[in-house]
Amino acid sequence: MSVPTLRPNVAFGVAAASFVFNFACQLYGMSSTPSMKDVADEYHALGSPYAPLIVVYFLWQAGIQLNWLFRIYKRHVSGEGTRTGPSLSSQVGGVEGEFGEDPPDEAIKYAPVFALGNFAIGLWMLAWNSKHLVVSLLFVLINSGAQLFYVFGPLGQMTSDAMQTHLVAKMFAAIGILDIVDNASSAFFPYKMTGFHPGLITYVLALFLTLVLAAVSDAMFGVLLTYCYVALTLGQLGEGMWALVLVGCTAIIAASATYRVQAEWRSYRVLLGWEGGSVV
Q1: At how many degrees (to 10) do helices 106-129 and 8-31 cross?
Q2: Which of 74, 216, 218, 239 has the most CB atoms around it within 10 Å of its CB?
Q3: How many Å apart are CA 280 and CA 278, to the nearest integer?
Q4: Where are the beta strands (DSSP E) in the chain?
Q5: Three-state secondary structure along 177-223?
Q6: pLDDT digits over 27-45, tens only?
Q7: pLDDT tens across 160-177, in order?
Q8: 3-state SS, residue 159
Q9: How is residue 170 annotated by DSSP?
Q10: Per-residue pLDDT for 19 more than 70?
C-alpha cells in the first residue's frame, strides 16, 4: 500500500488547511461548554491521562508542525530547494546509515498522511465534545492507524533534512497510541458509569504492549512514548495496582528509550551538525 504523492504546492495547501482546521477545533474543544476536559472527567477511565500534560504536548506539537509547514513552503513552494546531509536509517528499531542524499520530497510524501491525521483529530474533537465517544473513536483509529502505518512503513531515511518530518510523524503516532487507549476505555469502560476497574488481564495486556513498543521504538519514538506513559500514569494515580502497573510500564519504556538515546546519540549529533564525521 502506497501513499499518494501530491504536487508540492498542493501538498502544502492541503497540509496547511488541515493544520488550521485541527487547531481551530482544538481551541473550540478547550473553550466550549462542555469542554474537552469536562467530557474527559465525566468519562474518566483506565486509559485517561493527566490533562495538563496533554495540553503541553498539543502546544509543543502544534509549534513543531507549524515550523514544519514553514519549511515545506520555504523549500518546495518558494523554490529555495533542499540540501543534502548525513542519513540515519528509518528503521524504527535501530541506527545504521551513511552519508547520503536526502530524498527532496520526504515532507511532501508525508503531507497526505499529515493532512488526514489533522482532519481526523479535528473531527474527533467535535465528536468528543458532543459525547459521541464511539464516533470519536473511529476518527482516532483513522489518525492513529495512518500515522503508525507511515512511521513503520513508508517513512524514509532520517537525514538532517528529514529529521523534522520524522519528529512530526512520530509525535502523531506516539500520542495516537494513547488516544486509542484513552478513547476506547472512556467509550466502553468509564469508571463512574460502569464500575469497571482493571484486573489481571488488563495488567498482562498493558505489559505485553509495553514490551512490544519498547522493542520496536528508536530513540525519538521512545522518548515521545515515555512522555505519553508518564501522562497516563499521572492520570491514574489513586487507582491502586493499576497505577503501580503503569509505573512499571513507564519504567520499561523509559529504560528502553534511555538505551536507544545512548546508542544513537552520536548519530543524532552528526545529523544535527554538532559533530563531523559519518553516521555509524
Answers
A1: 20
A2: 218
A3: 6
A4: 85-88, 99-100, 158-159
A5: HHHHHHHHHHHHCCHHHHCCCCCHHHHHHHHHHHHHHHHHCCHHHHH
A6: 999 999 999 999 999 999 9
A7: 888 999 999 999 999 999
A8: strand
A9: H
A10: yes
What is the value of pTM for the model shown?
A: 0.88
Residue 188, judged by CB atoms within 10 A of its CB (0-12, 13-18, 19+), counts as middle
Q: Dig out the grid coordinates for 56 from the structure.
A: 503541553
pLDDT tens readout for residues 212-267:
999 999 999 999 999 999 999 999 999 999 999 999 999 999 999 999 999 988 88
Cis-peptide into 34, omega within 30 deg: yes
Q: How many residues does the chain have?
A: 280
How far is residue 189's CA from residue 199's CA, in Å, rounded to a whole number?
Answer: 13
Judge contact between 224 and 171, C-beta under 8 A: yes
Ramachandran area for residue 134 (φ above 0: left; ψ -120 to 50: alpha; else beta): alpha
Higher-pLDDT residue of 89, 219: 219
pLDDT of residue 277: 56
CB 228 within 8 A of CB 266: no
In angstroms, rounded to a whole number, what is the distance separating the alpha carbons of residues 8 and 77? 6
- Measured CA to CA in angstroms, residue 95 lies from 87, 92, 145, 262 at distances of 10, 8, 24, 11
C-alpha to C-alpha distance for 81 and 83, rounded to whole angstroms: 7
CB–CB of 154/3 below 8 Å? yes
H/E run at residue 143: helix 133-151
Separation of alpha carbons 172 and 22, rounded Å: 13
User: What's the mean per-residue pLDDT of the chain?
Assistant: 88
In DSSP terms, which residues pair with 87 in a beta bridge?
159
Q: Are 143 and 124 in contact (CB under 8 A)?
A: yes
What confidence tens digit (pLDDT) does each residue in 188-205 have?
999 999 999 999 999 999
